[in-house]
Amino acid sequence: MKLTLEPSAGVPVSEQIVNEVKRCISSRAARPGARLPSIRQLAAEHGISRFPVIEAYDRLVSQGLVDSRQGSGFYVADSPLAGMAGKGWSDPSLAEDLSDHILQQFNHPSATLKLAGGFVPESWRDLDGLTQAIRHVSRTEVDSVIHYATPLGHPELRRQVLTRVRQLGIEAELPQVLITSGASQALDLVVRHLLKPGDTVFVEDPGYYNLFGLLRLHGVRLVGVPHTPSGPDPDAAEALLRDHKPKLFFVNSVLQNPTGATLSPPVAFRLLELARRHGFRFVEDDIFSDFQTHFTDRLATLDQLEHVIYIGGFSKTISASLRTGYLVADKALVKDLVDVKVLTSVAGSHFAEAVTATLLERGAYRKYVERLRLRVRQATASAILRLGESGWQVFCEPAGGNLLWARAPGIEDSRELGAIAERHGVTLAPGNYFRPAGDATPWIRINTACVADPRAVAFLQEAGAR
């Protein structure tokens, strides 16, 4: 297999390798079972580091195009073309590009500014409060360092979560609260238990790309409902219900990812009425709840969990490393989901749950979140002003959170912005990543914490000038 690479072409070497291997496969120049050059060999032939080769081969394996055989090397998979076009993506390259974007977020430290990242900067976190809670738990709850958590989760953390959701007006009881390894596990448990291959679900368009991948992994059919500054378009949802029977409707109702929009009460009531008439449930992802300055009614507040499964977590605020989330639903469903959790992961991290419970119980978390909201609000206001000065349009002005959905003038496909961003050392996520069918869009997600960086300023100005 002969690969042509141009290290000075301005395209990451790992991406060139992936594209070259795909070209060989699609053109049949590389047949199933063909051996790829070894990592050492390919690096030596082209005078490059082994790291981009390793990254490229890992991507190819994860996409089902290449098999890794321990002690032997890498080979073209038996059915590589199925990996390129058989996973439900309208654009066969979208899944691969999206996987690359997800991986890029974890390349830390990095020379590029991740303008589309979803993380709160490390310097904004309450590191002192976190380390104090860790020391306290290490001294007083030795079991948490060694043993499994209980399947339902740390008792004190469950009580703290119950208090929090009751403050939102959700009248739940303790048996309805399940602690999970982040909101991602909560979503995964719901998908595993309630959906089967071939089922249809409604999702927001644009929406959370990792959820889209999870659903496709389970063979679920996605139908996108257009998202507005007031939430999912109820007229569009009602029209789609004439042709589709979704089992679930996944919504991010507060400070929605990626738009930053918050569900309005009139839209919420209409959507709940559709759920009652058509017999589907909402899965309400409220992961950004604590960024909201003034709480508004959730679907779960208005419905009291009759047609809603409510999900939240602390990874966006406390620590992505601790991975603590929660799910609140009717008792029968929670009991079933505990069984799924035990079978798939046994239990969560006792230590992470104990640390999170300590932060909540001692009041350190409340004080930290108050400071965080103020800092995020200031960064977002400044970012909106800077975007406007550069000629950009903002989808809506969020009532909190650090995400904006914005577009540059004269750009109809945000993928065109990639080359401009790269010149300024900026990494973007084209807006089509956030669309369930991968359709082109002029919009991109922007993390407001990054907008003041000189690299972002230069990129925004050049893109706006076009």
TrEMBL record:
Pfam families: Aminotran_1_2, GntR. GO terms for molecular function: DNA binding; DNA-binding transcription factor activity; pyridoxal phosphate binding. It comes from the Bacteria. Residues 11-79 form the HTH gntR-type domain. Signal peptide: none annotated. SMART domains: HTH_GNTR. Keywords: DNA-binding, Pyridoxal phosphate, Transcription, Transcription regulation. In the C-terminal section; belongs to the class-I pyridoxal-phosphate-dependent aminotransferase family. This is GntR family transcriptional regulator. The lineage of its organism: Bacteria, Pseudomonadati, Pseudomonadota, Betaproteobacteria, Burkholderiales.
